[in-house]
Amino acid sequence: MSITTDKLPPLIIGELALRILRKSFLTKLGFRPTLSKEKIEKTLGSIESSLMILKYSYLPLPEILLHVEVKNLNRYGLKLSESLKSAYSTPSTNLLSLATLRWGLQIIQHLERRLKTADSNLGSGVDLKVVHVRNVQKFDKFLLTRAYDNEKTYTIMTNLVNLRSNQNVAAAFLPPREIGGKLSEAMYIGSEERKEDAGVVLSPEQVDLTEVNAILHQLISQRS
């Protein structure tokens, strides 16, 4: 792949994740992270430094994959993830903020995995997985679904009217948002049945990323 590091989608999405993390940590979370605000901001600053070093290194991809800053990002992300553990037993937790924090930290922690499969699609900077649709119910103009990736169950709102339960489909894990007043933690990439098992990570060429790319472009262009 001949894409220079300043244009690599995993690093571009990493910057988006950092921006979202900073904003999310400032919201009313409904729980107290185990790290102080000062330590959280210091760690976020370290994440920014690592991303900038990688983005402007202009090294070939094999060298980027071996770069110490890739390992550092995993370490910083893990540190922040561990500070959120109290949220899971706190009834007042802001679920959207928590889901957003987890998304951002997944992006930072698992950068190496996406670097290995990245292409020119912005969508190659997020997790693309096969999920098993466990149940589907009508909710206003949408379908409210629960889907499993062999590790965790997610709530996903969709307007794909032909989606049904007990099928495996592709999903892109975009920043969580509220749709129709409900938390949505990913987006289905079509409703076609996949032969792969739930949890299988897909490469960008295996799915149509047109809509995913458009959403990510819009998010990146937002300044607030």
Blueprint (SSEs and pairs):
Blueprint: H1 9-25, H2 37-55, H3 61-65, H4 68-82, H5 95-109, H6 111-117, E1 128-139, E2 142-148, E3 153-158, E4 167-172, E5 177-179, E6 182-184, E7 187-188, H7 210-221
Antiparallel strand pairs: 1-2, 1-4, 2-3, 4-7, 5-6
Helix pairs in contact: 1-2, 1-5, 2-4, 4-5
Structure, explained:
A hairpin with a 4-residue loop joins strand 2 (142-148) and strand 3 (153-158). Helix content is 40%, strand content 17%. With 224 residues, it is of the alpha+beta class. The chain has helices spanning 9-25, 37-55, 61-65, 68-82, 95-109, 111-117, 210-221, and strands spanning 128-139, 142-148, 153-158, 167-172, 177-179, 182-184, 187-188. The strands form two sheets. The chain has a five-stranded antiparallel beta sheet with strand order 3-2-1-4-7, with no helix packed on it. A two-stranded antiparallel ribbon has the order 5-6. The two termini are 32 Å apart. It is built from seven helices and seven strands. The model has no long low-confidence stretch (mean pLDDT 95).
Mean pLDDT: 95
General shape: globular
The CATH topology name of the largest domain reads de novo design (two linked rop proteins)
Helical content (DSSP H or I, runs of 4+): 40-55%
Strand content: 15-25%
Global Rg: 17 Å
In spatial order, strands of the major sheet run: 3-2-1-4-7
